[in-house]
Amino acid sequence: MLWIKAFHVIFMVTWFAGLFYLPRLFVYHAMCSDQPGIDRFKIMERKLFYGIMTPGGVLTIIFGMWLWLDYGFSGAWLHAKLTLVVVLIAYHLYCLKLLNDFKHDRNTRSHIFYRWFNEFPVLLMIAIIILVTVKPI
Ligand code: HEM
């Protein structure tokens, strides 16, 4: 089980690297007005989302489900954790929508919005890790 858990945590860190960095790129992209800069942000955002963030998320979930189903974990902590994971998946998919808005130069949000948007996964990460490590409920 420890090898599965190790890979679960490794890919979770990979996923969060993207969840923290992509919205930060959106902050600077929303402030950018020169075409070479805009083109560079589009490439960075696409590579980060498809090359790191999405594979990290998919593999976190595969190894998490493996842990859950193979070792029969249960309890309110796991239900609360999985509810927050569903919110995290929704955030990930909304990032895809925003990625496509920037790709087609139809972003309407300001850099202020993206600075607040960038903080949300931090709160989810703290809550999920406390739930799964401390199991307070
Ligand atoms: C569908 C998604 C997920 C499922 C089914 C899942 C399930 C699990 C299970 C059953 C464990 C073992 C708990 C134990 O050994 O006590 C675990 C460990 C862990 N999970 Fe997840 N997890 C998922 C997603 C996530 C996410 C998104 C995070 C990100 C914060 C995360 C962070 C952790 C950590 C840090 C551990 C190790 C806890 C420890 O060793 O005490 N998991 N997960």
Based on DSSP secondary structure assignment, what is the total number of beta strands?
Answer: 0
Give a short account of the largest sheet. none
**Ligand species:** protoporphyrin IX containing FE
Structural class: mainly alpha
Kindly report how far apart the N and C termini lie: 23 Å
Shape verdict: elongated
* Count of the domains: 1
Strand content is under 5%
Share in helix: over 70%
Uncertain segments are none
What's the pLDDT, averaged over the residues? 96
What's the total helix number?
5
SSE order, one letter for each helix or strand: HHHHH
Explain this structure.
With 137 residues, the protein is mainly alpha-helical. It has one domain (2-134). 85% of the residues lie in helices and 0% in strands. The protein is elongated and about 55 Å long. It binds protoporphyrin IX containing FE. Protoporphyrin IX containing FE (HEM) binds at residues 5, 8-9, 12, 60-61, 64-65, 67-68, 73, 82, 85, 88, 125, 128-129, 132-133.
Question: What features would you highlight for this structure?
Answer:
mainly alpha; elongated; 137 residues
What is the compact description of this entry?
With 137 residues, this protein is mainly alpha-helical. The chain contains five helices and no strands.
Question: How are the elements arranged and paired?
Answer:
Layout: H1 2-31, H2 35-71, H3 76-103, H4 111-117, H5 120-134
Helix pairs in contact: 1-2, 1-3, 1-4, 2-3, 3-5
Protoporphyrin IX containing FE binds next to helix 1, helix 2, helix 3 and helix 5.
